[in-house]
């Protein structure tokens, strides 16, 4: 159901933004997590869809690089004997940014720290609702502030999405059928409409280069069982509801969010990955909310506006990779990420 041809394909849930760019090692966690290989970073540099050479992930002493998504890298810590510690992962957020399904050639300084610190803050805000995978923020100096050591979980093969507003693949499915993931919605809704009650709109992890596919609760139940499916729904809506209320009080609309849940070795369902960041959720400025068309993005609007303006000379429907961002677009975008962090948490980023 979701496709690249959505009004706003950038921020997850719909976007393949978090999709793979390069695997490393063997049976990696990311694979069992549903991300698929794309550009091997062990081979000679290869042209990705962007046609650009993507640099290999940073080497970190004491860690093995396992995998890279578009904007994040995944490592496993090594034990004293040099083996992979099978119980832990290091999640590293880079300063890379994606737009219109491309990783841009220009990074946004501090983006990785902002998203990591925001996710950590949310984990603590949500701790009474669901346990999380965070172990430590004591990480290599090269990735200080933008990496988290986590417990390795057995991830459910489902993207757990909650929506409180209609956008992206939810809007497309609603227009086609009046439902989203099998949930019937009232008639008359439009792009950006607020839903009376937030809904659980799960998706299956897509193949390489594809977007996730919306599925019904029943289809989730076929995979994980009815009781677990219901628990994933309950937890996803609890996380979204808490996040949406808090953000709205601070002038940020959280239109939807995608969370990743897994099981620990004791059988508990645990919140993993990143949570309630602009890369896993649609953040809209509450002041600019005007249903009836695509809503401005809190964080990426300057990037999108420039990329789609004549000034960029770029065709987002063409084959060419996106051009580098001008300095002022970088700086204004960086300021938006910092503003989102400070507005939500009431703290300065340190
Ligand atoms: C998350 C991802 C990437 C960062 C695997 N606690 C966990 N246990 C098992 N697997 C994962 C987690 Cl968080 C897991 N991902 C997505 C990809 C960088 C996160 F390249 N993949």
Description:
25% of the residues lie in helices and 23% in strands. The protein is an alpha+beta fold and 350 residues long. The chain has a six-stranded antiparallel β-sheet. Strands 9, 10, 13, 16, 17 and 18 form a six-stranded antiparallel β-sheet that branches. It has a two-stranded antiparallel ribbon with strand order 5-6. The N and C termini lie far apart (41 Å). Ligand Q0Z binds at residues 29-30, 33, 35, 67-69, 72-74, 89, 91, 133, 150-153, 155, 262, 272-273.
Mean pLDDT over all positions:
89
| Small molecules held by this entry | ligand Q0Z
Report the sheet-strand fraction.
Answer: 15-25%
Name the helix and strand elements from N-terminus to C-terminus, one letter apiece. EHEEEEEHEEEEHEEEEEHHEEEHH
Terminal Cα span = 41 Å
Helical run tally: 7
Shape: globular
| Biggest sheet details | 6 strands, antiparallel
Low-confidence stretches: 1-11, 25-50
- Determine Rg (CA atoms, Å): 19 Å
Number of strands: 18
Indicate the structural class: alpha+beta
**Order of the strands making up the biggest sheet:** 1-2-3-4-8-7
Helix content, binned percent: 10-25%
